[in-house]
Amino acid sequence: MSQSQQLHELLGEGSEINIVCHNNPDPDCLASALALGRIAAAAGIDEQQILYSGDISHQQNRAFVNLLDIDLEPFEPATLQNRQPDSLLAFVDHSIPGQNNAVPPETDVDIVIDHHPAEDIDARFVDHRAELGAAATILTEYVRTLDIDLDADLATALLFAIRSDTLDFLRGATATDYDAAGYLHESADQEMIRQLSTPSISGGTLDAISTAIDNRIINGAVLISHVGRTTERDALPQAVDYLVRLEGVQTAIVFGLVDDTIQISARSPDARVNVGNVLNETFDDVGSGGGHHDVAGGEIPLGIFADYTSDDTQLLEMVEQIITARLFAELNLSEETGE
């Protein structure tokens, strides 16, 4: 029995499904959730929710939700506590309870569909393909093999997700990703793809990127910077995507204060550096970090830092010193820096 058939059979046992996105979901996660909902409906599940934690703050992600009219609900632990016996719990684009999601650890999960590096995934149905460029590629395969109705919205969501997660097929794209995109292309709304690809940028995001440019320090081929305090969480990946293009830079890491956390975003086209491992090893004892070898992120609760001082300037100085020192140590860099 194929994986798509196994999934369809499991869905046939349920009366409802809760599809949980990872924190601050991106197009790949959102499109995968939308597709799984369509597959669940075809299997006879009318009661379904797409749940998320954090924010949908990136201008592209907001446009994605609005243009495709994706129905989302904030995740509440009570939702899982009050589940019926035949209610199914699914993760898309992430895999472990309590890691990059608000689901309590040790929660039983029914369905996991993911392409991020992970170990010890435990669920009744697991499709984990770390070699693929996007989770949406896996869902496209299911839509195709199960003959799910592929309307313009679903095709557009999945195609844009694959393009987004592979940086227009420049990062981690495989023949399978290309094949999925080719299948989706004819049914997708190309004008909507264009709109999603060129969203407006907020003043707060522009300010954060500017701050990251000003605060950059370079050690060899490694650039580290921060955006200060910002309400624009998704300005960090946009800043690091910009800075990693600087001549001579092979690894870029940007952090910043967002609410009561330190958010971190990293990029590295350098095959010798696995930034997912770097962030995990550097901050595993105080927070969480991980991702792919070339794209990664992390989050650290401010905790004792916030208790120590209410002065944001002093707080940022402390955070900058400690985060930079830890990264230098993990990357075996000296304290001497360039710009």
Q: What layout of secondary structure does this protein have?
A:
Blueprint (H helix, E strand, L loop, with lengths): L2 H9 L4 E5 L6 H16 L4 E6 L6 H10 L4 E2 L2 H5 L5 E6 L18 E4 L10 E4 L6 H11 L6 H14 L9 H11 L4 H8 L5 H12 L2 E3 L2 E8 L5 H9 L7 E8 L2 E7 L7 H9 L4 E4 L3 E7 L2 H5 L3 H19 L9
Helix pairs in contact: 2-5, 2-6, 3-8, 5-6, 5-7, 6-7, 9-10
Account of the protein in words:
- This is NanoRNase/pAp phosphatase, hydrolyzes c-di-AMP and oligoRNAs.
- There is one protein chain.
- This protein is of the alpha/beta class and 339 residues long.
- It has 2 domains: 3-197, inorganic pyrophosphatase (n-terminal core), CATH 3.90.1640; 203-330, Diaminopimelate Epimerase, Chain A, domain 1 (Roll), CATH 3.10.310.
- The protein is built from 13 helices and 12 strands.
- A 6-stranded parallel sheet has the order 3-2-1-4-5-6, covered by helices on one side. Strands 7-8-9-10-12-11 form a 6-stranded mixed sheet, with helices on both faces.
- Strand 7 (217-219) and strand 8 form a beta hairpin.
- The longest helix is centred in the C-terminal third of the chain and has 19 residues, at 312-330.
- The protein starts with a helix and ends in a 9-residue tail after the last helix.
